[in-house]
Design brief:
single chain, alpha+beta, CRO Repressor, 2 domains, 4-stranded antiparallel sheet, two-stranded antiparallel sheet, 6 strands
Length: about 190
């Protein structure tokens, strides 16, 4: 019977802890987001997502657990924001770090043709690509120049006319040579 009563109410001390600690953690997170800049709330790559999940878990600890102090929670959240700030600065300054941390964009459609090898590698289905094409106001695959799986997992859709006349290997910083080879292999 005792276990059932603590399930719904475990004393005023616990409620007071939640009431006091929650606003402190909330203010701390807002302060850290403001200090580290827009990057901490922008579209996320894999590392940003991991930090966000970890921060959520850390915030909950001092709010709900008696053995984790507010100072420990604030320090842990601050440290994660600081490490993320260092990592993002390193990715801007170092090509090596950027290549390790960020995934490169993947071309899933090239000049109206699905790039099946790249779709399998990135685990993106044809229906997901078609959905992105429709969301961008297009009705036909053959009207599409590129569909790119970006580093933040968004699908960018570029109409065919936007890349026409670009016979070079670069469009918007993308290396098209692999997609061009993939299309010529599918033609044969």
């Amino acid at each position: 019977m005792l276990a059932q009563t603590t399930l719904f109410f475990d004393g005023w001390d616990n409620l007071a802890q939640v009431l006091i600690v929650t606003p402190i953690m909330y203010i701390a997170v807002i302060a850290f987001v403001r200090l580290t800049g827009k990057r901490s709330t922008s579209q996320m790559n894999n590392f940003d997502w991991v930090v966000t999940v970890a921060i959520g878990s850390i915030i909950a600890s001092p709010i709900l657990l008696k053995d984790v102090s507010v100072a420990e929670g604030v320090l842990a959240v601050g440290l994660l924001f600081f490490l993320q700030w260092i990592l993002t600065n390193l990715t801007v300054r170092s090509k090596v770090v950027s290549n390790i941390v960020r995934s490169t964009p993947s071309i899933l459609v090239y000049r109206g043709e699905l790039q099946h090898t790249e779709m399998k590698r990135t685990r993106v289905t044809e229906s997901e690509i078609m959905s992105a094409i429709r969301e961008n106001g297009h009705a036909q695959l053959d009207a599409i120049g590129l569909v790119v799986l970006e580093s933040d997992a968004n699908l960018s859709v570029i109409p065919k006319e936007a890349i026409e006349g670009h016979d070079c290997d670069q469009v918007c910083g993308l290396d098209l040579s692999a997609a061009q080879q993939g299309s010529s292999k599918q033609d044969t």
